[in-house]
Structure formats: structure tokens, C-alpha cells
Amino acid sequence: xxxxxxxxxARVVKEGRHLLVKKGDATYHTLFTYKLRQLLLFGNIEIxxxxxxxxxxxxxxxxxxxxxxxxxxRLAPLESKNVFLHKRQYHLLDDSVFGIRLARSIVAGKLxxxxxxxxxxxxxxxxPVAGTIAKQIQSLMPKLSQxxxxxxxxxxxxxxxALFFEGFRYGFVGDIGFTRRVRRPPTDxxxxxxxxxxxxxxxxxxxxxxxxxLDPYPGFxxxxxxxxxxxxxxxxxxxxxxxxxxxxLSLFNLKILQKxxxxxxxxxxxxxxxxxxxxxxxxxxxxxxxxxxxxxESGDFDLPxxxxxxxxxxxxxxTGKYPVKLQPDAFKRVIDAFEKKLTTTFFYPPAERNLTxxxxxxxxxxxxxxxxxxxxxxxxxxxxx
Length: 385
Description:
The chain contains 10 helices and 12 strands. The chain is an alpha/beta fold. It has a 4-stranded mixed beta sheet with strand order 1-5-7-8, with helices on one face. Strands 4-3-2-6 form a 4-stranded mixed beta sheet. Strand 3 and strand 4 form a beta hairpin. It is globular and about 60 Å long.
């Protein structure tokens, strides 16, 4: 179970074997620690010493974010004791042949998923330009397979991502102000949601990496740097389009999010949120958003230090605009939709059975470990069908 705590001024306290989320005399949540896998705390949330001990005793990954979703840090479970696995991870960082082959597989999966989503946009929205861009991304695949150095691999990833966001805007019904990917700060509603959802995804992948007893720092596609979860960022790539990009389209196209759900911080203004939260549309029924083949306080938030030293073509330049934030009620809708998306099931070939995408993240981390240990020859990303 994953729990998000957003009530400002709340406290997490221990009561017996359980944890309570309280504000004043009111109790907002009762958390059963034996069921809890991850706890995400947004903004001004306090944890008592006894509650923190309980979280550590049960090895619960506790994540701290700003009120608007920018990642700050975490109270992590105990480190994996598998020193031999970690030694192999770092040893393989110096194996350029292995690293390039692995990075090519990761990027190939990402490019394939972006191509598939753009082709859906072409068919569902009758936007031929999306198909044209998809073919341009597809044309990078033969070049990627021949890449003999990591800089080339990163360059193809950067070029593919830049092309993808040129076509992504055609997936939205109507003009909602999205023209390109802008990260820090996100200056329109779509970029705001993308940044938030990528942060949520990063935290779920981090959990999968830790469950697999892997060290989250040594990655192969993303360059290693002090404090950067390079492996987590590597394993996120295949899930970006599958989970975040499709979900973002659904949130806007199904009118779960509308213009009044966002505020421009000029400084921050207030506005009434007229969007009803009773029985919101099901995010998994959108024809593009479907996953399966059946159908700092300064203002910004995004993934921490995720750069790959890629070509400047994929790096958005500062806009001089103010950051755009979600209203509190809309923020909750995004969280609910993200968790619902992760419970969507699909047929997962390695396990030969249906899995949710939340479970698939954990399985993929385990599969990655098998590649590192030599039990599998090639890493195979999950592909959007």
C-alpha cells in the first residue's frame, strides 16, 4: 500500500502497532504498518520520534516532498546486505561493451513506446503530423542499434525525446497551452502535471530497485554523479510513455483536469475550484490513455538531477514565465488517477501472467538484476502495445 499525506500541519504519530495521521484532535488516516510499502509526505508534515522508529522498523520507504511535489529526500529502509551484487554493479560500470548494450536496450524501449503512443494519437485524433513524427523517431532505431559509444546512445535518446514532445501536443483535445517540454519551472498545466507524475513514477521505481536489493546510484544510460539515482532514472525510461504520458492525456481529454484547476504563481493567487470530485471519469477508458492494447519551495518540481549529458537539442531553455501549480483538490485527483493507473493489468510475458503496472515495475527491477548477474542475456523493456 502506498499512502500520500497532503494535509498541511498534520502529524504522523504512533499508536500501538499503527500510525495515525492527525491534525489537532482530528484523525485523518490510520496506517497499518504491516500493509504499508511507501509513505509520501507533502509539505508541512511532522513525524514523531516513535512514529519514525516504527517506519524504520518495518522498512517503510518514507519520501519527503514540498507541498507542490518537488522531491526533497527520503527516510530509506535498511541498505541491502548483498555486497557481492553491489560490487558487480560497480564493476560493470567499467565494462563499456556491457554498458552500451544495456543502454541501447533501454533507449530502444523508450523510443518504441513513444512511437506507439504517437501512432495512437495519429489514429485517434486524426493527426497525420503525429504519424510523421513517429516515423522520424522510428528512423533512429537502426542508428541506435549501431551506436558504439554511450554519447551516441544518449544523443539518440535526446533526439527522440525532443521529437516526441513535438508530436505529443497533438494528442490533446483543444488547445491547452502546451507547445514543448519545460521542466524547471513548468510553465503550463501539461508540463506541471508531467513533472509531478514523473516524480511519482521515480519514487515507485526507486522502491522496485530497493526491493531487488540493487544500489540505486550506478546507472548505465544516465551518467553517474554525486547523489543521483542513475539506475532509477534508467529504469524509469520505459514507463514514461506507458504510465505518465498516457495518463496526462487522459486527465485533460476526459476533463478530469481543467484550466481552473491550475494557478500561476505570480505570487500565488487563489481561485475557486469548481471541478466536481464526485465520481470522476475513469482514466483508463480513454482510447489513447489506455495502457493495454485493448482499447524546492521556490516554485518548481521535477525529478532530482536526472540529466544524461545529452545533446542540447533536447534541453528546454528558460522561458521567463511563472510556474504553474495544481490546486489542492486537483492535486488529489492526479494522485488518485496515478494510483488507479498503476492497478491496470496487462499480460506480462516474463511472468507469463497478468500483472498490474505497479507490480511490473518491481518485476522489471528484478529482471534487470538478472541481467547484471548474468542470468539473462539482454534487458527487455516493457513495450506499449
